[in-house]
Amino acid sequence: MTQPRIELLLALLGAAAMVLAAMATPWLKFVLTLALAKGIAVLGIMLLLRAGQVSFGHALYVALGAYTVAFLAPSMPDAALLLVAAALGTTVAGLLIGLFVSRYREIFFGMLNLALSMVFYSMLEKFYHYTRGTDGIRVPSLTVAGVPLDRVSYEWTIFGMALVLALGFGVFARVYLASPLGQALSAIKTRETRLDFMGVSSRNVLLSAYVLSALMAGCAGALIAMTSRHVTPLLAYWTASGELVFIAILGGAGGVLGPFLGAAAYELVRVYAAATVADMWQMILGAVLLLVILFARGGIWGLLSSRLQRGRVA
Amino acid sequence: MRALLEARGLRLAFGGVKAADGIDLDVMEHEFLAIIGPNGAGKTTFINMTTGYLKPQGGTITYSGAEITGRRPRDIVRRGVARSFQLPQLFSEHTVEENAALAIASREGIWSPFAPLLRPAWRQEARELLDRFGLLPVAGQRADALNEGTRKLADIAMAVALKPRLLLMDEPTSGVAAAEKMGIVETLVRVLRDARVTAVFVEHDMDVVERFADRVAVWSQGRIAALGPPAQVLADPAVQRDVIGIERPAAGVAHA
Ligand SMILES: Nc1ncnc2c1ncn2[C@@H]1O[C@H](COP(=O)(O)OP(=O)(O)OP(=O)(O)O)[C@@H](O)[C@H]1O
Ligand SMILES: [Mg+2]
Questions:
Q1: Could you tell me which residue ranges the ABC transporter domain spans (chain B) (predicted)?
Q2: Cα-to-chain-centroid distance, residue A151
Q3: What gap in Å lies between CA A35 and CA A236, rounded to an integer?
Q4: In total, how many domains does chain A have?
């Protein structure tokens, strides 16, 4: 089997495992939906990592997607329409902001994104009249194709949406990364000026990835709003951006499965840690990050894929 | 013959260093023009100005009848001016084949997010190109695993993949082992002549200059000190003393 086939198979197996887990343990549905949503956002972070750029501000797009849902839900309660609206809104925002930040690299790129996300955070906090400040906004019941659903069907629907989006974005990212455009991203990391000397605008290459990453984060935000039914400015806080980068490193940036493996591991460990050793969560995070950086640079996906490759050679 | 590239009165100083101090040069269509001169004479600076990397402080550059002075590298490449680099500029995490394919993609249009970079047509073109440069055996190797001479060749191959009308090469043979040098240059010249490319190349090896250049321009402190056919220029006592005298022993040795 070829590498893409194996990855697709693993993705489908993972999806099936998630469905089974959600069926066996209903409250896991919520955790897994969140994990899938974050995985989608981290997938966007990974595209930027390919170009050697780390955004410490992508929670901005997650929050924008989430607040789009919260704002529009009272007048437009259809989940699919809300998702489309969040996707459009964050794509436009990603394009406008991307036109500006794609001129910068490395620490400047990272910090500009951070700065913009913090501006957005304080706007959400300060404009109480519209956003209800730190109290946040409750998302009313949504409908699917015009039909109001009971709680269980609604949860399954959002879970299914998250799963389909994750698979869709995952397949797209896989194809995109193998394309000239995706390969040019890693060329930005290693020798950006050469691209310009070959007639390619490296800035536009990065911009394309940036817009995609904003779109993915926006969809993630919409899913998070639909699942948690409550949005607060904390969604845009810088620790939320840091969490996405953390998951990207934990899962590994080498393949499109990495973000989802990372997100699933992160959310599951968090839930169990909260239940057992609540006050040690930060310490566990720090220790895991340390271990990954010291011993497993490729993250979870790196460990898994090297094992797979060894298996195939043997 | 008409001039494909016309430089007029190019000036550029870095602090007190005059890297270009009134450069006038016509590069004729289909000629091979060698640039020689001591270290720091401003040879690379000339290529940098011509390809848009540096903006001259004075003077004009005209390519194929249109002024390109101070335009962006991207715009200039798209008009048909490619370059290779004194220090190879490869995408180090990509294989040699992918490097070549990325150059082909740049020429053909990179804005396709669905078809793979190594699509059959581009892969075949990349392999044919690498074959002409004798690089097929290392096609699957990562660029950062290559030795200096091979990197240099791959760097030139990428510029050639752009199918330029004018190719500027900065010391194409430095770092190439002396034993292989003539063979490689012969191959390169054949490739370029077949494609009817006009070439400007900075060269420290006078044997290469003598054999392959139609004309030689001698750079000295940001000026052109002599210009003409190799036989005539290289026989000039002043050139022998100032350029060849210094450079001959260094020829064939990796040049910083
Ligand atoms: N970007 C730059 N900034 C400052 N000084 C520069 C820059 N580029 C070139 N110089 C200076 O301009 C002069 C000409 O440099 P250039 O690289 O053009 O010489 P060269 O003829 O190519 O030399 P070599 O044979 O060593 O490659 C040198 O003194 C160099 O230090
Ligand atoms: Mg030089």
A1: 5-246
A2: 25
A3: 17
A4: 1
The Cα–Cα gap between B227 and B217 comes to 4
Query: How many CA atoms does the CB half-sphere of B185 hold within 13 Å?
Result: 28
List Cα–Cα distances, B113 to A103, A166, A216, in angstroms: 22, 18, 16
Q: Find the residue in B nearest to A178 (Cα).
A: B116
pLDDT band at residue B75 under the 50/70/90 scheme = very high
Q: Band of the pLDDT at A121, cuts 50, 70, 90?
A: very high
Q: From residue A121, give the alpha-carbon distance in Å to each of A59, A88, A210, A234.
A: 9, 20, 20, 7
E-strand ranges in B29-128 read 32-36, 58-63, 66-67, 81-84
Report the alpha-carbon distance of residue A146 to residue A143 in Å, rounded: 5
Binding residues of A for ATP: 189
- What structural domains does chain B harbor? 3-244 (3.40.50.300)
Is residue A119 a part of any domain in this protein? yes
Q: 3-state DSSP helix/strand/coil percent for chain B, to nearest 5?
A: 40, 25, 35
Domain assignment present for residue A299? The answer is no
CA of B253 to nearest chain A CA: how many angstroms apart? Answer: 26
Name residue A65's beta-bridge partners. none
pLDDT tens digits, residue range A206-243?
A: 999 999 999 999 999 999 999 999 999 999 999 999 99
Contacts of A220 (CB under 8 A, 6+ apart): A37, A38, A40, A41, A62, A65
Q: Is residue A19 part of a domain?
A: yes
In this model, does residue A92 exceed pLDDT 60? yes
> What is the span of the domain harbouring residue A206?
3-241
pLDDT digits (tens, 9 = 90+) for B5-58: 999 999 999 998 998 899 999 999 999 999 999 999 999 999 999 999 999 999
Q: Is the CB of B86 under 6 A from ligand 1?
A: yes
Question: Residue A37 in 3-state DSSP?
Answer: helix
Q: Does A306 touch chain B (CB under 8 A)?
A: no
Q: How confident is the model at residue A126 (pLDDT cuts 50, 70, 90)?
A: confident
Task: Taking each helix axis as running N to C, give the angle between helix A79-101 and helix A202-228, from 0 to 180 degrees, rounded to the nearest 10.
Answer: 150
Model confidence pTM above 0.80: yes
B217 pocket-lining for ligand 1 (C-beta < 6 Å): no
Binding site: residue ranges of A?
Answer: 189
* Residues A50/A253, Cβ–Cβ less than 8 Å: yes
